[in-house]
Design brief:
The N and C termini lie far apart (about 30 Å). Helix 2 (about 35-55) packs across helix 3. The longest helix has 18 residues, at about 35-55. The chain has a two-stranded antiparallel ribbon with strand order 1-2. By secondary structure, the chain is mainly alpha-helical. The protein has helices spanning about 25-35, 35-55, 60-75; strands spanning about 5, 10-15. The protein contains 3 helices and 2 strands.
Length: about 90
């Protein structure tokens, strides 16, 4: 049986993640209050951010930027806009 969480991103009850997708407290917060649907949406948005801004997940500065954007996207709805992205 799948877990149901109140997704802070979608503002509704939805299927929860199977595991914490990120280390530390932020990962636990995501696990507790972000749905699979919202997480998948973030992964697609993150891909667009990486491609549009030519980011490297190997670069510590880029990883920090992506972590900040992830938190903004999932919990605040204020992540940086991606030029040319149509939802």
């Amino acid at each position: 049986m799948s877990r149901v969480v109140f997704c802070e991103n979608l503002k509704k009850d939805a299927e929860g993640l199977d595991f914490a997708p990120w280390p530390g407290e932020l990962g636990q917060r995501i696990y507790r209050s972000i749905s699979k649907e919202a997480w998948q949406s973030w992964l697609e948005y993150q891909t667009a951010l990486i491609n549009e801004n030519r980011l490297s997940p190997m670069d510590p500065k880029h990883r920090k930027y992506l972590a900040e954007q992830m938190e903004k996207y999932l919990f605040e709805g204020t992540a940086d806009k991606v030029v040319g992205l149509t939802p």
